[in-house]
């Protein structure tokens, strides 16, 4: 691994020139009055005239534009430094209201008054995040689906219609285009060190945001439109994210940062600032600063282990950055095996955690949501920040010198590393399926507690318990359970009551605790999991409908408001759910068992896998029909039982032929 001390920049030579030098080549002094009216409004024509265009196709000439705008940015920065906070608030605060996060922009003004480079970089990351979200809200005044990427948003016709194409071209010089300064990306992806981001560009973006607010106000008045802000993402079930212990680790974290080989020395101020922010309860700031540095450190490992040191630097506009997505992939873009997981001592832990918090669609997707402005920075959860800091500390420890043995053995660090070593994905589709199954089983276990009519008023219904056909079906369930014994703990089945002794919540919990590797899960496995999740979701909906329907009918029974036909249907329902309960529990057991063996099946015989997937889809069709038949407006209990019998026969037939997944895996 390359020594972090030897890395002096993560900006490629052309990108370093564009950001750090190009805008300083013109030494002209620009008069702020040229772009500022007497009442403090931005004179946009005077700004847009500095954007240059190529003669060939009239597209933006980013090099000439940056060079021309350099003195303008310098003038704006000096102008802001001449203002007091009170003057700035009076003059500009109202022009930031359209962003729905005025305080963030006022904080950026405070940062510009200091000489702290880390603060400027943090301010720019927050500014671009909030600006992107606000521009997306404006886009929705005229369009439907807001583009996910900032470059596509800035190039949209919808924003050009509101602000004017010339104004949007000014913005693209600073953010959104890989041909321009591209300030958002080089910061959020961890390429720029604090000293490499000129404060004047931050000042200019602050100035331009106020100018956009002025233009928008005019547009809204002319069109009589109202700007609606999309709601922020709200994190629920934060306890699911709890992987690491509390913040006692901060007591030695700064020492780790200074000694770990994972930290690029040019980025050390970011790490220190992140830990300081956490101590000050500025949790969003802490995570915003940490995530790019985790990416930078992992990029150093990635480029070293895969022998592509040139990719440590920012790629040119014609190539891709080396980002989290590629570093976490199984293969490189040339189809060679990614060596990063081999080097990591706990590859599954690092990758699972990062996938959970950054990539999985049902996870918090912290980096995406922070960088695109989807999270309220003022109420960012401490719980999430704690997990990111905890993960960062484990990485620092893992890549530290042996001389730090005493730190690694510290009473605070050891439990942290222990948590890291046993981390399992919480948001992978397989993990989510386990959660679904257990929630569904909890719901079905409520059925015996449902209020019923007195037994003497119940009637035996054709096709249900109490006759030979029903007994045969109960026997069929028992036989299927018997075939699953190989995958269950010993002595979990009672000969006296094989159904109720096996189809329990306790057994499913035990089976779901079985570790299943989710890293680099094959596509066929994911296809199976998608179907299994749909089956589980339908089973849960059936259970909820049964509980709600039984409660309603019992109340109506007591109040004597049921007509004769409804009373008969209610009795039919009560008898049906006694039989339906073990069937649904059996399906949940099948789902859980298949999770253990699904990898083997998909690798062993693709044809058998396809046959089994077809079978699963037929089970899904059954559960979808169950949802329809058991809905309050249908109550088709005879059809429910007939369909259930056919499905059980099909399951038994597939089982006998050994085409079921659990048999293919043996």
TrEMBL record:
Pfam families associated with the record: DUF4209 (PF13910)
Domain named DUF4209: residues: 131-211
Protein name per the record: EMARD protein
Organism: Molothrus ater (Brown-headed cowbird)
């Amino acid at each position: 691994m390359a020594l972090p001390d030897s890395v002096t920049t993560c900006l490629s030579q052309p990108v370093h020139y564009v950001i750090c030098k190009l805008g300083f080549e013109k030494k002209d002094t620009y008069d702020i009055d040229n772009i500022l009216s007497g009442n403090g409004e931005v004179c946009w024509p005077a700004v847009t005239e500095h954007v240059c265009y190529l003669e060939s196709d009239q597209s933006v000439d980013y090099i000439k534009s940056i060079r021309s705008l350099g003195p303008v940015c310098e003038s704006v920065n000096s102008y802001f430094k001449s203002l007091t906070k009170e003057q700035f608030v009076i003059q500009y605060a109202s022009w930031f209201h359209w962003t729905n996060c005025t305080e963030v922009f006022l904080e950026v003004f405070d940062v510009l008054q200091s000489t702290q480079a880390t603060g400027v970089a943090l301010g720019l990351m927050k500014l671009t995040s909030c600006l992107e979200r606000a521009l997306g809200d404006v886009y929705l005044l005229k369009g439907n689906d807001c583009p996910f990427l900032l470059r596509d948003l800035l190039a949209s016709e919808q924003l050009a219609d509101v602000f004017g194409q010339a104004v949007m071209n000014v913005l693209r010089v600073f953010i959104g285009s890989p041909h321009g300064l591209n300030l958002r990306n080089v910061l959020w992806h961890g390429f720029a060190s604090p000293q490499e981001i000129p404060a004047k560009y931050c000042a200019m973006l602050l100035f331009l945001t106020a100018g956009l607010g002025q233009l928008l106000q005019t547009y809204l008045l002319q069109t009589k439109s109202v700007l609606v802000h999309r709601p922020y993402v709200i994190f629920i079930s934060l306890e699911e994210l709890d992987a690491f212990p509390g913040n006692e680790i901060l007591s030695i974290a700064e020492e780790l940062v200074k000694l770990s080989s994972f930290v690029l020395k040019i980025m050390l101020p970011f790490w220190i600032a992140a830990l300081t922010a956490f101590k000050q309860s500025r949790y969003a700031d802490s995570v915003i600063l940490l995530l790019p540095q985790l990416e930078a450190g992992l990029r150093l490992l990635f480029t070293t282990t895969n022998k592509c040191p040139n990719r440590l630097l920012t790629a040119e506009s014609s190539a891709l950055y080396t980002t989290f997505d590629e570093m976490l992939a199984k293969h490189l873009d040339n189809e060679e095996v990614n060596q990063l997981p081999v080097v990591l001592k706990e590859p599954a832990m690092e990758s699972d955690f990062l996938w959970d918090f950054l990539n999985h669609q049902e996870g918090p997707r912290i980096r995406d949501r922070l960088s695109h402005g989807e999270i309220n920075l003022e109420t960012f959860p401490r719980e999430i920040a704690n997990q990111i800091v905890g993960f960062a500390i484990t990485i620092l420890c893992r890549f530290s010198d042996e001389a730090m043995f005493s730190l690694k053995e510290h009473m605070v660090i050891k439990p942290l590393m222990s948590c890291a070593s046993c981390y399992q994905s919480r948001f992978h589709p397989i993990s989510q399926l386990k959660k679904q199954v257990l929630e569904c089983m909890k719901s079905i276990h409520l059925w015996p507690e449902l209020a019923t009519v007195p037994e003497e008023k119940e009637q035996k219904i054709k096709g249900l318990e109490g006759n030979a056909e029903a007994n045969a079906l109960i026997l069929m369930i028992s036989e299927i359970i018997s075939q699953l014994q190989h995958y269950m703990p010993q002595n979990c089945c009672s000969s006296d009551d094989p159904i109720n002794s096996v189809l329990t919540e306790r057994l499913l919990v035990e089976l779901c605790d079985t570790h299943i590797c989710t890293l680099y899960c094959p596509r066929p496995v994911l296809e199976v999991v998608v179907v299994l999740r749909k089956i589980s979701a339908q089973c849960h909906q059936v259970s909820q409908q049964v509980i709600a329907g039984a409660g309603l009918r019992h109340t109506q029974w007591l109040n004597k408001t049921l007509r004769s036909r409804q009373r008969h249907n209610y009795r039919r329902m009560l008898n049906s759910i006694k039989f339906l309960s073990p069937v649904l529990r059996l399906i949940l057991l099948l789902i859980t068992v298949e999770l253990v063996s699904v990898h083997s099946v998909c690798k062993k015989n693709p044809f058998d896998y396809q046959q089994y997937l077809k079978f699963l889809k037929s089970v899904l069709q059954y559960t979808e029909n169950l949802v329809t038949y058991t809905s309050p407006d249908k109550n088709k209990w005879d059809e429910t039982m007939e369909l259930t019998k056919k499905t059980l026969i099909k399951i038994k037939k597939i089982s006998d032929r050994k085409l079921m997944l659990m048999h293919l895996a043996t």
